[in-house]
Specification:
The complex is a heterodimer of chains A (about 110) and B (about 120). Chain A is built from no helices and 11 strands. In chain A, strands 2, 4, 5, 6, 9, 10 and 11 form a 7-stranded mixed sheet that branches. A 4-stranded antiparallel sheet of chain A has the order 1-3-8-7, with no helix packed on it. Chain A is globular. With about 110 residues, chain A is mainly β. Chain B contains no helices and 12 strands. Chain B is mainly beta. The termini of chain B are far apart. The chains are: A mainly beta (about 110), B mainly beta (about 120). Chains A and B meet through β4, β5, β9 and β10 of A and β5, β6, β10 and β11 of B.
């Protein structure tokens, strides 16, 4: 069983608020990822990191930002939430980079009113 | 262009029967990996099975097997002896490894197939 945790699981918030979605893993993985998924749809990569102090944008443009100050922690921040940000955000990590599967957290479902 | 295509938005199967979920992919890289994940209604992503592009044998994991046809660029998931708990969304995903570079482990996902198992 993967040891990767996301909080909060569910968040309902008003427009204009700043939010941070937390993601932590205890496996010592260097590579971490954030995917965005609308209900019933495919996952889109929005951010990834291959180690401490490295962050890269993914294939889908996102107004969110990420940081990687510690190996185990990869938070995602939205400075000013909008209804268009309503989605599920899934965090994942990987040990072997080009090989091996991604381990996913349980996801954070964000609703912006 | 869509790199991973799952043409079946929904599939139905009777309990204890086998079912095949289709996946085709598009890549010009010689080295790549193909993955299948299960996503129950609770939302988490559960890894099921992996197939490397150089693997000679089709991958198997318990009731899951991957029907890998490299020339046709297809990687269909076969679930044998379906169970009610198999009802979920299933995603096919690909990792491309460009020669001389690295993928950083990134996966590209297909649109998914909703599987419903009837008692």
């Amino acid at each position: 069983e993967a040891d990767i945790y996301q909080t909060p699981r569910y968040l309902v918030i008003g427009t204009g608020k700043k939010i941070t979605l937390e993601c932590s893993q205890t496996m010592g993985h260097d590579k971490m990822y954030w995917y965005q998924q609308d209900p019933g749809m495919e996952l889109h990569l929005i951010h990834y990191s291959y180690g401490v102090n490295s962050t890269e944008k993914g294939d889908l443009s996102s107004e969110s930002t990420v940081s990687r100050i510690r190996t185990e922690h990869f938070p995602l921040t939205l400075e000013s939430a909008r209804p268009s940000h309503t989605s599920q955000y899934l965090c994942a990590s990987s040990e072997f980079g080009d090989y091996g599967e991604l381990f996913f957290g349980e996801g954070s479902r964000l609703t912006v009113l | 262009a869509q790199k991973i295509t799952q043409t079946q938005p929904g599939m139905f199967v009777q309990e204890k029967e086998a079912v095949t979920l289709d996946c085709t992919y598009d890549t010009s890289d010689p080295s790549y990996g193909l993955f299948w994940y299960k996503q129950p209604s609770s939302g988490e992503m559960i890894f099921l099975i992996y197939q490397g592009s150089y693997d000679q044998q089709n991958a198997t994991e318990g009731r899951y097997s991957l029907n890998f046809q490299k020339a046709r660029k297809s990687a269909n998931l076969v679930i044998s002896a379906s169970q009610l708990g198999d009802s979920a969304m299933y995603f096919c995903a690909m990792r491309e490894i460009t020669a001389g570079g690295t993928s950083y482990g990134k996966l590209t996902f297909g649109q998914g197939t909703i599987l419903t198992v009837h008692p």
